[in-house]
């Protein structure tokens, strides 16, 4: 192995390697060439600068890479001392690194002990965990489609309804339907009122109200307040709902105004019969929800995910009875399409029309346990005009099964007079279909 030569060449007939010539003064070039294995004698006056060359084969490019043991020194000449230049610096370097390390450790221990002592004695601030909290967003900055955004828009349109009764003050909920002060609520909220009603708005202000009209069988009532700057709700389409749609129930349950609860549509066209002893019988083809609804929510809006009213909260199912009943995740609302129609009838004429099919129904139909038997059919009524007659068993109405008389009555009353519904019925052993145009009763 050889190192790369730098600037090698011949100058004045002499070999030049790396800029030096180790030959002893007075020795010719021929002598050097005549014996390549000859080495200069060690020592000698004026030539001590190369006296260690025998110990370093890399100094002579022509020397073999072997260790050469130098000859014994000339008598009286002292060998040149060999020292390690890094030996003296190593202890100093270790000390230089060790001193700041020990100093830092001592400072940390002292600082920690001092801080701990201050914290124990109440002289230091408590440690802050986590990042600095971000400021909460303003209500107006919440996304419109979020539940908070929906509640923000609808709450100013929801009111608490209070009426005086002989037994005390009745309280429920309602919502503003028009800009000129018409408010929708439940009939059972204002039923039996002996004095003027009043409403309390979401901002805490109140206003007297008058009862415009009531429909006990549909459980819808309309009252009116005279106040400027009212904000009516937006109406949705209850026929466009699907099970699983998110909803909010807003009102004053248990006198807790401005309460918002969330849930989903649990079922549609849940037919049921309700009413107090001695009072009217109410039939619902209701929207079922698991949103928390309690006493005082009656008459308040059930709102979809876009902030549109799709139902009027009316009744609940509970294990207990009477005033002890509470929410167990089963609440029912009147579909808003039905409530709007009845409200328009009340505002326009003072009373609501009731939708009928023109037949009397009895118990469940015979055979298979499905269907409702027609006990009688009114002459020239909707059912008779469609070809139905007494004894026929109606199995479905617009695709909805009818297993009990309540099912048929509730489903019929959900539709407006003039609506055409598909009826599937059984006559004897045959299945038949008919289209029936529903009408309003003569009352």
From TrEMBL:
The keyword Membrane applies. It comes from the Bacteria. The keyword Membrane applies. Keywords: Hydrolase, Membrane, Protease, Transmembrane, Transmembrane helix. Residues 346-427 form the PDZ domain. It holds the Pfam family Trypsin_2. The chain crosses the membrane at residues 95-119. SUPFAM superfamilies: PDZ domain-like, Trypsin-like serine proteases. Coiled coil: none annotated. Residues 1-55 are annotated as: Disordered. This is PDZ domain-containing protein. It comes from Salinispora arenicola.
């Amino acid at each position: 192995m050889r190192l790369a030569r730098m600037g090698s060449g011949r100058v004045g007939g002499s070999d030049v390697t790396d800029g030096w010539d180790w030959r002893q003064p007075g020795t010719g070039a021929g002598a050097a060439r005549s014996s390549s294995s000859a080495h200069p004698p060690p020592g000698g006056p004026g030539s001590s600068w190369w006296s260690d060359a025998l110990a370093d084969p890399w100094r002579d490019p022509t020397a073999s890479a072997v260790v050469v043991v130098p000859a014994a020194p000339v008598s009286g000449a002292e060998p040149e001392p060999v020292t390690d230049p890094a030996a003296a610096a190593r202890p100093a370097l270790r000390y230089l690194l060790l001193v700041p390390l020990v100093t830092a450790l001592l400072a940390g221990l002292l600082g920690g002990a001092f801080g701990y002592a201050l914290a124990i004695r109440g002289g230091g601030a408590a440690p802050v965990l986590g990042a600095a909290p971000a400021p909460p967003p303003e209500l107006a900055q919440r996304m419109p489609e979020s539940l908070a955004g929906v509640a923000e828009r609808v709450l100013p349109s929801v009111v608490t309804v209070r009426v005086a009764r002989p037994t005390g003050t009745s309280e429920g909920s309602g919502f503003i339907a028009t800009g000129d002060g018409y408010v929708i609520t439940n009939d059972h909220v204002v039923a039996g009122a002996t004095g003027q009603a009043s409403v309390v708005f979401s901002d805490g202000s109140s206003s007297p109200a008058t009862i415009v009209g009531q429909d006990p069988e549909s459980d819808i009532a309309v009252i009116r307040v005279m106040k400027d700057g009212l904000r009516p709700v937006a109406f949705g389409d209850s026929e466009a709902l699907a099970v699983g749609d998110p909803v909010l129930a807003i009102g004053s349950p248990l006198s807790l105004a401005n309460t918002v609860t969330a849930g989903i549509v649990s079922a549609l066209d849940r037919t049921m019969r309700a009413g107090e002893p001695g009072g009217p019988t109410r039939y619902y083809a209701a929207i079922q929800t698991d949103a928390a609804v309690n006493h005082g929510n009656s008459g308040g809006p059930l709102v979809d995910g876009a902030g549109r009213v799709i139902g009027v909260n009316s009744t609940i199912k509970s294990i207990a009875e009477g005033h002890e009943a509470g929410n167990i995740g089963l609440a029912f609302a009147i579909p808003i399409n039905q409530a709007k129609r009845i409200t328009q009838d009340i505002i326009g004429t003072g009373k609501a029309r009731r939708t009928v099919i023109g037949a009397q129904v009895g118990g469940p139909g015979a055979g298979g346990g499905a269907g409702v038997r027609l006990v009688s059919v009114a002459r020239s009524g909707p059912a008779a005009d469609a070809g139905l007659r007494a004894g026929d068993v109606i199995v479905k109405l617009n695709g909805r099964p009818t297993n009990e008389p309540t099912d048929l009555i509730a489903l019929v009353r959900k539709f407006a007079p003039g609506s055409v519904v598909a009826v599937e019925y059984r006559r004897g052993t045959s299945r038949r279909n008919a289209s029936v145009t529903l009408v309003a009763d003569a009352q």
